[in-house]
Amino acid sequence: MEHLDRLSTVFRGALGLAPDARVDALEYRSVPQWDSLAHMSLIAAIEEEFDVMIDTDDVLDMSSFAKAVALLEKHGAVVSG
Amino acid sequence: MPSSAAEPVEARVSLVTGSSRGIGNAVARRLALGGHTVVLHGRTYESAAAAASALTRDTGAKTDAVHGDVADPAAVADMMREIHRRHRRLDSLVVNAGIHAAAMIGMMGSETVERLFQVNAIGATHTLQSAASLLRRGVAPAVVFLSSVMATRGSTGQAVYGATKAAVLGLTRSAAKELGPAGIRVNAVAPGFVETDMLASLDEDGRAERVRATPLGRLAEPGDIAAAVAFLLSGDAGFITGQVLGVDGGVIL
Ligand SMILES: NC(=O)c1ccc[n+]([C@@H]2O[C@H](COP(=O)([O-])OP(=O)(O)OC[C@H]3O[C@@H](n4cnc5c(N)ncnc54)[C@H](OP(=O)(O)O)[C@@H]3O)[C@@H](O)[C@H]2O)c1
Questions:
Q1: Whether the complex's predicted ipTM surpasses the cut of 0.90
Q2: Do B80 and A43 count as a contact with CB atoms less than 8 A apart?
């Protein structure tokens, strides 16, 4: 679960959310902070934290916290379960 | 702040697209001599790898090679993934790969029109988009696009090529605005006539006519363009972004 905590921290930091904000059900544009500008900062922060490079198609597809988890699994950056 | 204080100690990692020959190769050489680790690029593995090993042999610089058609977004993404795997970041990007074709309006086949846009305008877009996250990790990151006087001035027979190179200027300006807050500078150079394979189809009369049209009385050498690109990538240009630098011997005057 450690990777989920790391990802949550990245989400809160990049989107400027409170340290205790729940992010696991978050979706793109579901909060005003997650707009298209913040999306690129979020992508950069995820790439930095997990040392991955996210393709343009995946950048467009990453529309929720759950999709970000799946994306990291695809990159082998986290082990599911 | 003096520029030397801003230079990173570690070698800059720089990708020059279309550096197997011509202007791109001269840029790669110039950056290698300036201490950069240069990633060379061509359409094929053979052309890129041969250029990289020749550059290392001649300059002693560290080089690397990636390849692929810039018009193919998957190939460009693969190139950037390779760079991420081997270098983790990009400090400089020179978007140079390009093709040229000339024809009077109404006389250029649709395949040629599409290919010119695919390589020069869309290829440049794919390159910038795919490299953006590597640049965000770079030190004092900077991008230079190769445009042309044909974008700013135009000429008979150059409508389509000029349009593709004008697209590059549109990319340059918006990218400079958007990426400035991330510390990434984006500029373009607009060469006049440069002695490369691209001008090989010019006959003696055509060449003489272009020399006559150029106040400095000669065609550019690839090194003339490389010097301008190296300047725009350097700390000396640290507060310059969104600009188009003409390197044309005064041909636009
Ligand atoms: N020469 C001039 O007078 C002039 C003037 C103004 C602007 N420019 C611009 O300067 C840039 C360089 O021109 P140049 O004269 O040096 O051209 P060049 O000598 O013909 O070299 C072109 C380079 O681009 C690469 N390239 C071409 N199409 C590509 C593609 N689809 N995918 C990947 N790489 C590709 C080539 O790779 P391969 O070796 O693998 O083919 C080669 O390395 C171009 O953008 C051009 O429009 C040139």
A1: no
A2: no
